[in-house]
Specification:
Layout (H helix, E strand, L loop, with lengths): L3 E7 L4 E3 L13 H9 L3 E7 H6 L16 E5 L12 E4 L3 H10 L4 E6 L1 H9 L5 E6 L8 E2 L8 E10 L5 E9 L1
């Protein structure tokens, strides 16, 4: 069975973005960036919500194209309309649980949950999130989009690895244990 890994940058106060969805304040340079790019090779499938996919437009992503060329993309949204889709991009508007369970039961590497917070919280609530790979940035936002959106589900985490980067970013790997 494949794992779903929430691989995400957070502030010290556990926000994945500012309230407006921007990510200013996360370190865009440093020794942690090469490690992040290398870790992306661990995945052949990426899942995300609409706002996370559209966030890529600010960085040159063209609508309907893959953000990560070596991965199959599943964008979960009831409102996203992309008329010209790459073969690597699917928009999922209905029965998301069935597809996610099918992906987990399928073959391939672990599945990269790119975001966002509400989608991650929904997966957590459904008991489908298996691992966390948190890039803890040395910044405090004060308010913003929470790591797990509005989810209030309690879980236990087992720390499996840590990496401290000279940039000040900490990479924290956890296995999720549901209570």
């Amino acid at each position: 069975m494949r794992n779903i890994t929430y691989h995400v940058a957070t502030s010290l106060d556990h926000y994945i973005a500012h309230e407006d969805g921007s990510a200013g304040g996360f370190l865009p340079e440093g020794d942690h960036v090469a490690a992040y790019l290398a870790h992306l090779q661990d995945y052949d499938t990426v899942i995300m919500g609409r706002r996370t996919y559209e966030f890529g437009y600010d960085f040159g992503l063209e609508p309907g194209r893959p953000a990560y060329p070596h991965m199959q993309h599943y964008i979960f949204s009831k409102s996203l309309q992309l008329p010209d889709l790459s073969d690597q991009v699917e928009v999922i508007a209905e029965q998301p649980l069935d597809l996610i369970r099918s992906l987990k039961d399928g073959t391939g590497t672990d599945i990269y949950l790119c975001g966002g917070g509400e989608f991650a919280g929904w997966l957590l609530d459904e008991g489908l999130l298996d691992k966390l790979r948190i890039k803890l940035n040395p910044v405090v936002f004060g308010k913003g989009i929470p790591l797990f959106g509005s989810s209030q589900r309690a879980i236990n985490l087992i720390l499996t690895d840590t990496t401290v980067y000279h940039s000040g970013v900490l990479l924290l790997d956890y296995d999720v244990r549901y209570t």
